[in-house]
Amino acid sequence: MSAIELLKEILKVSEKAANIARVCRADDHLFKLLVQEKAPEESNSRFEHDFKTLADCLIQEAVKYDIGKRFPALRDNIRGEENPKFTNAAGESTVVTVTEDRNETVENIAKVLNDDKVAAERLVEEVYREIELDWEQWQVPIGEAATLVQEIDQLGIWIDPIDATAEYVRAQDKGTKYPNIMASGLKVVTVLIGVFEFAHGTPIMGVVNQPFAEEPETGRYEGKIFWGITIGDLKFNNIQAVDTDERIAVLSPSEQSKYVEFLKNQLKYEIVCSSGAGYKILKVATGEAELFLLSKGTTYKWDTCGPQAILRSLDGDLFDLQNTLINKSLKKISYQDRKIIRNVGGLIAYRNIEKFKDFLKL
Predict the structure, then answer these.
(1) Is 126 annotated as ligand-binding?
(2) Planar angle of CA 94, 97, 98, nearest 5 degrees
(3) Is 76 a catalytic site residue?
(4) Catalytic: 358?
(5) 303 is in an annotated binding site
(6) Catalytic residue among 4, 109, 162, 248
(7) Active site residue: 81, 288, 290, 320, which one?
(8) Which pTM was predicted?
(9) Is 317 marked as binding a ligand?
(10) Which three-class secondary structure string do you get for 11-51?
């Protein structure tokens, strides 16, 4: 299988996901129907309230359907964040599914939306829409690079259909003193898709789609897509690095004070707090931040697989923070054990590994 063909498919489904997210957010009637609080056993301990939306579930199932249809050997190797079971206002439960039969999918979605067929049709229209992308615009390699080959049945995929769901729901944009780094709001929302190989658990391909990256005068949000791929010694990506003289560490607003003080006082970093793990890792990949540190085990494999693959294509990587600090060796985040879904030791992301080694010396 050509790895570039898989990359193209993932780019297309990421844009389909972004379209669904934008459609849901733009229609007030539709959006009010979509939000459902997660059950306690599903929610993230960082937040008092965590949400899943039908957009989350529908995106996840649409991605699985499209990739599985194009690459049948991958169908059973695709995993995501969301439990596709949804309960409507009448207390009736249904499992969100996407099938070959469009009418069947409409009926399924309508059950969640209390038989609102108009809303269901609007969503399903996006699910089955054919996505066309300008490969030149997104800098997808051709020629020799297009011959990259991987054994398809030796690959797995992690999907986070909407990373920073709480920000997606609240949509309260808040900036920082750095214009290219947002603290919160729709711009930190991302669609994350990562491909890893089973043998070593290494991410080899990743896509981060920002559905709400730009809001032009028309009022319709436009997105950006970032991707990276590493196979053997070959590395490709579409990252346009930003050069900055600032030493910026991007952190969670709830980061432990001892880490904040160490980075600020000992290493002289400017501290910027932002939401969304995928967004923060992306900022390291683009060079707009030098590092991302998270001391708590509150991220999951679906949060990190795609962004980590992009970092790897730039000679950076994502590391298990606590394991690395204890053992004084670079312990990378791995996806080999598929029963482990949480990054229990926290994270630290660097694009420049030499700077990470300097961090460890201190």
Answers:
(1) no
(2) 150
(3) no
(4) no
(5) yes
(6) 162
(7) 81
(8) 0.92
(9) no
(10) HHHHHHHHHHHHHHHHCHHHHHHHEEECCCCCCCCCCCCCE
Would you state the pLDDT for residue 39? 57
Average pLDDT over the chain, rounded to an integer: 88
163 in active site? yes
Q: Which residue of the set 163, 167, 255, 320 is catalytic?
A: 163
What SS3 string covers 301-349? HHHHHHHHHHHHHCCCEEEEHHHHHHHCCCCECCCCCCCCCECCCCEEE
Q: Is 337 annotated as a binding residue?
A: no
Assigned token pair, 356: 């990470």
Q: In whole angstroms, give the CA distance from residue 13 to residue 39.
A: 28
pLDDT tens, residue by residue, 94-116: 888 999 999 999 998 888 787 88
Q: Is residue 303 annotated as part of the catalytic site, yes or no? A: yes
Give residue-wise pLDDT tens across range 39-66.
565 555 443 343 567 788 889 999 999 9
User: Which burial class, exposed, middle or buried, applies to 216 when counting CB atoms under 10 A from its CB (0-12, 13-18, 19+)?
Assistant: exposed
Told to judge if 152 belongs to the known catalytic residues of this protein, a careful annotator would answer: no
DSSP secondary structure string for all residues of 261-292? HIIIIIS-PEEEE-S-HHHHHHHHHTTSSSEE
Phi then psi for residue 153, to 5 deg, are -80, 0
Please check the confidence at residue 245 and state whether its pLDDT lies above 90: no
Residue 277 predicted with pLDDT over 80: yes
Select which of 160, 197, 288, 317 is catalytic. 160
* 50 classed as catalytic: no
Q: Is the pLDDT of residue 1 over 80?
A: no
**81: annotated active-site residue:** yes
Task: Determine the pLDDT at residue 109.
Answer: 87
